[in-house]
Structures are given as C-alpha cells and as structure tokens.
Amino acid sequence: MPLSTVQVKHTPYDTREVLDHVRGTICDMITPYWLGSVPSNFGDLAAGTIKADAWHTLATVYIPITLISLLG
Per-residue DSSP letters for the chain? Predict the structure, then answer.
C-alpha cells in the first residue's frame, strides 16, 4: 500500500491536555519515600531542567499511569 493512501489516526488529545493530566497525576499520587521526586510544575520554564532520576521516575511511573487513565 503506498504511503500516500495510509491514513494516520490522530488522538483527540491536545499536548497541553496531556501535560496537565501528567501534572495532576504527579500531584495526586501517593508514592513511597524512596521514589525520586518530580516537580509538580513539570513542563514549565519555572521547573527548570530535570535530572536523569526525575526522567526515569516520569517514564516508569507517572507517564504510564497517566496514559492508561487517558486512553483506558
């Protein structure tokens, strides 16, 4: 099938909506004390640059839970 005829299905979620949902998940979740912290204003300029530990926590805990709650 030629690529020009393939239709890509876009999600109905705006990037800002997903980012707000991630922030809400960060604020609402109760996590164990040994789990690295993530800034609750993640994605804002005021949050600054996050370190590798925070990226790891986002990628393994917060973002999967957020996506499951958005798409599920």
Answer: --GGGPPPPPPS--HHHHHHHHHHHHHH----TTSPP--TTTTSGGG----HHHHHHIIIIIHHHHHHHHH-
Q: What residues have CB less than 8 Å from 11, skipping those under 6 apart?
A: 71
> In angstroms, rounded to a whole number, what is the distance separating the alpha carbons of residues 68 and 34?
24
- The C-alpha atoms of residue 7 and residue 4 are separated, in whole angstroms, by 8
> Per this entry, what is the length of the chain?
72
Q: What is the pLDDT of residue 16?
A: 85
Give tens-digit pLDDT for 4-56: 665 656 666 678 888 899 999 999 999 999 998 899 888 888 888 999 999 99
